[in-house]
Amino acid sequence: MSDAFERRTGPAGAIGEDAERIVRACQDMAERFRAGGKLLVFGTGGSVADAQHVAVEFAHPVIVGKPALPALALTTDMAVATGIARTQGLDGVFAAQLRLLASPRDIALGLSAGGDCAGVRNGLAAARELGLLTVALTGGRDAAEADHVLAARSDDPLIVKEVHVTMYHVLWELVHVFHELEAVR
User: Are 69 and 57 in contact (CB under 8 A)?
Assistant: First the structure.
């Protein structure tokens, strides 16, 4: 029974060790929001629900007084996703959506618990080509290429997802801190 807790201790504690990297990502994200950018979030499998969770956190904050920031989960429109997949394959869905919807001032946030999802990697690559700020929340393999790679230090996808939930809540909170700091200057 204690093994269930011990397996989570290291990965959860590593978030604090990555504080400087997380802060830099949040500063860059806040800068993009101030410039009129929006957050485009995507992932596959269980990360679909996480992408939608992140988007709603930014677009409709539950904490009174926090501003809504424009965010969209690319995983919510099944007609578009399956239409693109029919002609370009599943691995091209997010890249195609980003090419259609994104502007260079936007932020692309890709989630991959295993770190090796081709669709997420292709989406992040397309976002970089378009000039977006790219942030990847990955698993222990750290396979994604992005401006900011925030990797949960575990190979267990369940633990990775648990760490990702904490990471994206910290991203939300600190982006608002930096966004508000600029507003009072």
Answer: no
